[in-house]
Amino acid sequence: MSTFSGLNAATTALWAQRRALDVTGQNISNVNTAGYSRQRADMQAIGGSAVPAFYSTSSGIGGGVNANDVIRIRDIFLEGRGHTEHANNTRLTEEAGALAQVETAFREPGEYGIQSLLADMWDGWGDVHNAPDTGAARAQVIQQMDTLVGGLHFASASLDAQWNQTRENLTVLAKDVNAAARTVADLNQAIQRATQLGVPANDLADQRDLLVMGLADQVGGTVRQGKDGMVDVVVGGMTLVAGTSASQLAVSGTVDSSGTGGDPVRLVTAVGGYTVGAGGTAGGQLTAMNAIFPKYQGELNTLAGGLATAMNALHAEGFDKLGNAGGAIFDSADGTPVTAANIRLAVTDPDRIAASRIAGGPNTDNSNADRIAQLRALTDGPDADYRKLVVTLGVEAAVANRTLSIQSVITTQVDAARESVAGVNIDEEMTNMLSFQHAYSAAARLVTSIDEMLDQLINRTGRVGL
Amino acid sequence: MRITQRAVTLTSLQGLNRNLEALGKLQNQLTSGRLINKPSDSPTGTNKAMQTRAEQAAVAQQGRNVTDAKSWLDQGSTSLLQMLDMTQRIRDLTVQGLNTGAASPESQKALATEIASLREGLLNMANTRVAGRPVFGGVTAGDKAYDPTGAYVGTTVTPGSTVGTVTRRVSDSELLRVDLTGPEAFGSGADSLFSVVGRIANDLENSPASLDDDLAALDVAMKTMQGAVADIGARGARLERVEEVQIERTLTLKAQLGAVESIDLPLTIMNLSMQETGYQAALAATAKVISPTLLDFLR
């Protein structure tokens, strides 16, 4: 054992404590940095030589401390859980948002929705029933029906507009995801090089993990740990980032909201066009476009079709002011089945309103107007159908909102748990700082004391009697 | 368990947000005055509210129908009563004319002239119109029930049938007939009021012997008219009952809609202040938890 080995050990201690203090400084600086994982100087005792050799024996006391490694503290299982919960949260947010948009398209309950337009129209028919001979009553019912047609068009168009907007958002999101995937791959490469060189790449890894969490939010990406500190990002079974290479996503499928039945909107790989089972925001948007909007668009079409069928049947049985048989009152512009988008008023001449049920020349009978007005009270009539639609929507939206609020609690809890592991605790850093400071002082004192010891040996030994 | 300041911040923030969200919801309810602002606030409540609104609209329309029905019935009964008075006068004149021994041909002629002019008046009354339509004309597209000769030109109704009647929808289940056709009110053909009165005017001058038969026929016509007045009166009474029910229903529906859709003001305000207290407590707790660190105690 060398005479100066004690000094050497004290030096390593001084160096190690200073390094640990530096790391503490880094931690405190980044206490509020998003995605930062706390770091720790990994101290290891330097053991004495365990292999005895000729002239070289060890006392078994070590040679100080080694603090070369600075490690990042992070729980990859919690991170994985975070990816899943984040993806669920964004997906549910998107779905609840889509349902809220549908709710605004219907504007119920209130005085401006389709319900009140229907009521106004039935009132119009009631007025025709009261005064089938006056042009005013007949003209106003045509106006009321026209307003109802406008209301149906508006609701249908606003669902359509929301669909188009969502598809556009998905396209933008795909571009965003592609850019993020590219960056993750680049960072993977940098991390690989650093790891191979033995240089800590903690901050690069933090940056990358933040991006990966973003990918989890956007498309529901999950992570597979690779070698040399790299990670693979997997989306719905398809590898988006494999080590240092990233593949690209694209949006495919119909560009028209009516085409989701045969050609649903999909997220596919840019090369090969394989469908990717995306989660996260993209998953929610896909559900909105392929299920939610088409469902309510379809319900609205059924409502419009049912209204046209019921009223046309009754109207055709009546006779107009001149005694001619009444034809259809609603039709579609191109002769296709009536939908909320193409419904059109077939009768524009007030005299053509078939209020009478007595054939054979002009008369002022009003019984057909009453039959049409009484459609309002039918338990399976347009009003009841529309109420059913709105209630279904309300239930679905309420369930989505409740699920979302539960999910957001879970997500926050997981985030807090991740933060508890990887985040910086100022109290802890303070305590660490004190202990490193004390350790540094102690090591310095050790140097002094060895110095004094050597001084004793060198300067004062053999001077008995001098 | 290890806990960090950021973890505490995250969870406190979530709690604060939930508090604020509840506060916002209550505030929204208070300012809008409505419990249900979108279907998902309460799907069943939405259904009830929409149903009640639909019923309200129907009842309001029925209210208008009742008003309209009233004007028809009133006009019909007024005309009929006036015509009954005139017919009574004709009957008196006819009885006067029957005393053939006491009257000179000139006075008979004067009686005949008066009766003929009364007949004109009757015809005019029989053509009374409501909003442009003859009350006794059925569903005719023309504007007269009787032509100047006293022939009926309106449409007829087969007894027991509702085809060709003028009706008003006064409740969900009831269509009330508001008219009477000429033949129903005044008899038809040779027995109709106008034919009989025309005959009397003629017979006074030319064939006083037939006046006995004419008087009998006039009594039959008057009986028909009295029956018609009673019929219209009965319908008017029914209409009044319907109207009362309607007024009551309007109020009930309004109360129902209020109960479903509007907020209970004291309850909401109470909830709001409770929520506010909760929010302030949460804020105070957060402020206490977040601010101190070890730094406050080290020197």
Summed up:
The complex is a heterodimer of chains A (466) and B (299). By secondary structure, chain A is an alpha+beta fold.
Task: Assign the structural class of chain A, choosing from mainly alpha, mainly beta, alpha/beta, alpha+beta, or little secondary structure.
Answer: alpha+beta
Taking strands numbered 1, 2, ... along the chain, how are they ordered across the largest sheet of chain A? 3-4-5-6
The multimeric state of the shown protein is heterodimer
Helix count from the secondary structure assignment of chain B: 7
Main sheet: strands, sense, barrel of chain B: 2 strands, antiparallel
**Could you give the order of the helices and strands of chain A?**
HEEHHHHEEEEEEHEEHHH
First-last Cα distance of chain B: 27 Å
On the 0 to 100 scale, the average pLDDT of chain A is 91
Structural class of chain B, please?
Answer: mainly alpha
What distance lies between the first and last C-alpha atoms of chain A, to the nearest angstrom? Answer: 31 Å
Written description of the protein model:
The complex is a heterodimer of chains A (466) and B (299). With 466 residues, chain A is α+β, with helices and mostly antiparallel strands. Chain A is built from 9 helices and 10 strands. Chain A has helices at 5-29, 76-106, 114-130, 135-197, 202-219, 280-317, 367-373, 382-422, 426-460; strands at 39-46, 64-72, 222-225, 231-235, 238-242, 245-246, 249-252, 266-269, 330-332, 343-345. In chain A, the strands form 4 sheets. In chain A, strands 3-4-5-6 form a 4-stranded antiparallel β-sheet. A two-stranded antiparallel ribbon of chain A has the order 1-2. Chain A has a two-stranded antiparallel ribbon with strand order 7-8. In chain A, helix 1 runs antiparallel to helix 9 and helix 2 runs parallel beside helix 6. Chain A is rod-shaped. Chain B has 7 helices and 4 strands; from the N terminus they run H-H-H-E-E-E-E-H-H-H-H. In chain B, the strands form 2 sheets. Chain B has a two-stranded antiparallel ribbon. In chain B, strands 3-4 form a two-stranded antiparallel ribbon. In chain B, helix 1 runs antiparallel to helix 7 and helix 3 runs antiparallel to helix 5 (193-206). Classes of the chains: A alpha+beta (466), B mainly alpha (299). Chains A and B meet through helix 2, helix 3, helix 7, helix 8 and helix 9 of A and helix 1, helix 2 and strand 3 of B.
